[in-house]
Amino acid sequence: MADAKVIPFDDDRSRARRRPPGGRSDGAAAVRALPTQPAPAPAPAEPEAPAPGGARGSGWERRLAGGLAFLRRRVTGDYEVDEFGYDEELTDQVLMSLLRPLAEKYFRVEVKGVENIPKDGGALVVANHSGTLPLDGLMMQVAVHDHHPAGRHLRLLAADLVFMLPVVNELARKAGHTLACAEDAERLLKAGEIVGVMPEGFKGIGKPFAERYKLQRFGRGGFVSTALRAGVPIVPCSIVGAEEIYPMLGNAKTLARVLGLPYFPLTPTFPWLGPLGALPLPTKWTIQFGEPIPTDGYPLEAAEDPMLMFNLTDQVREQIQHTLYKLLVQRRSVFF
Asked: Is 217 helix (H, G, I), strand (E, B) or coil?
């Protein structure tokens, strides 16, 4: 499989790269520059004429032909990635197909309020973070991808640890994730992308089970400042169900320091059951997207106003926390 070529952001050539006609023969993916503003929605495609022999006889043939065409493009490099390494075709056809059964069959994720995410233009989705391993971010990505009426994609901001791990680094880039820094987030938002951030960070996913569904600090409000500069709405998101997949009863801090990890979880099954202990519990999830909080009505200098950032950060945090409590009251049990 060909590797995606990532061009440095300060290289002007990256802004003019396009896939040449007929594809590439060197096995490297063409780099697609981010638009300076959202592109208009494409016109609906004309329905294809039915294949000879009927749909029943041609369905598997179309899937086989599509799969072979996909592999050919992978081998020859006849596909595009954007300047962050996002491979939309691979994400749609492979990565989402792998994550979808986990969301639909294992965690049985119920998605609410996804229509609160704009149909076009940029938006910043801010969610709580939990679960010892960051599966909640991936499930939120599936929720937007599969349930949004406009078929939008979520670009997650991830910690630097993600991009230091072999294999995980490459998959994260292909799936559209990028480093959790203001510059990358602002550029994506101004290009009309939906960006997801979980301000609790490691404090959220690494908190003890006794503190489940109690939001940790949201940092210094950097995500609010980014949204203000980009002039995009903030969409609060509350996730219930992730806290119980790996109940974290303890933290082996010495071992975590030796391994260079923010924490080393001790759960009822891990590390006592070995690899089997890494299997998450099949809890029932609910992901609810709340009413967007607009930011385009503030002046440009508002992004530098610490009091405004504090107030908006507190507003987002309180809305997420209130929704979490409401969803917890409504759910019948952890697993059903």
From this structure: coil
Separation CA 213–CA 325 (nearest Å): 8
Q: What is the DSSP letter of 149?
A: T
pLDDT at 4 over 50: no
What is each CA distance from 19 to 46, 48, 79, 90, 173, in whole angstroms? 25, 26, 8, 16, 19
Residue reference for tokens 């109690």 = 214
Per-residue pLDDT averaged across 149-164, rounded?
Answer: 94
Q: How far is CA 204 from the centre of its chain?
A: 16
The phi and psi torsions of 33 (rounded to 5 degrees) equal -70, 145
Q: Which helix (H) or strand (E) holds 65?
A: helix 55-76
Q: Is 128 exposed, middle or buried (0-12, 13-18, 19+ CB in 10 A)?
A: buried
Q: At what angle do helices 306-330 and 222-230 cross, to 10 degrees?
A: 110
Distances (CA, A) of 1 to 76, 79, 125, 261: 9, 12, 32, 30
Token pair listed for 90: 């691979």
Q: Which amino acid is at 282?
A: P
Write out pLDDT tens, residues 22-77.
444 445 667 777 776 555 555 554 554 454 444 444 678 887 887 888 888 888 88
H or E element, residue 326: helix 306-330
Read off the pLDDT of residues 293-334 as tens digits, 9 standing for 90 and up. 999 889 888 988 999 999 999 999 999 999 999 999 999 999
DSSP letter, residue 174: H
The token duo for 231 is 């002039």
Q: Residue 93 corresponds to which amino acid?
A: Q
d(CA 27, CA 47): 32
Task: Please give the mean pLDDT across all residues of the chain.
Answer: 86
